[in-house]
Amino acid sequence: MERCCGLVTRSHKPVPLKAISVEVQVKSFVVDVASTLLYKNEEENPVEAVFVFPIEEGCTVYSFEAMVDGKKIVAEIQERQQARDTYDDAISSGEEAFLLEEDESSSDIFTCSIGNLPPNQEAAVSISFVKELLIEADGALRFVLPAVLNPRYTPQDAEKPSVTSHIPYVPKGEIPYNLKLSAQIQHPSGISRVQSNCSLTPLQYLKEDKTSAQVSLSEEQKFDKDVELLIYYNEVNKPSIILEAGVQTASAVAGTLMGDPIAMLNFYPKFPEKLTQSTCGEFIFLVDRSGSMADSSSNQLEGPTRIDSAKETLLLLLKSLPVGCYFNIYGFGSHFESFFPESVEYTQENMENALEKVKSMDADFGGTEILNPLKDIYSKACRPEQPRQLFVFTDGEVGNTKQVIEEVRKNASSHRCFSFGIGEGASTALIKGIAKAASGTYEFITEDERMQPKALRSLKCALQPTVKGISLNWQLPAGLQAVQLSKTPVAMFKGQRSILYAQLKGKLDEKSKAVATLEYTFMEQVIQNKLVFSLQPEEDSRLTVHHLAAKVMIDDLEDSSQSDSEDEKKKIIELSMQAGVISSHTSFIAVNKDLNQPVQGPLMRRDIPLSPPPMVYRCTMMMIIIVIKIGISGVAFGHQPRMMMCYAAAPNIVSFRSVAQSYRLDDDDSEVGSSVYFSAPLNVCGARPVCTTNLASPQKNTSSTCNLIQDPVIFIFKFPAEQKKKKFMIYFYPPWILSKSSKDLYSIDLYTFKMRRSVFKLISLQKVDGSWNLDAKLASVIGLTEQEIKNKMPSKNFDNVLWATILAVIWLHAFGAEYKDEWELLVGKAVVWIKVRAGPSPGDVVKAGNELLKTSVEQQEIGL
Question: The VIT domain covers which part of the protein (predicted)?
Answer without folding.
Answer: 1-131
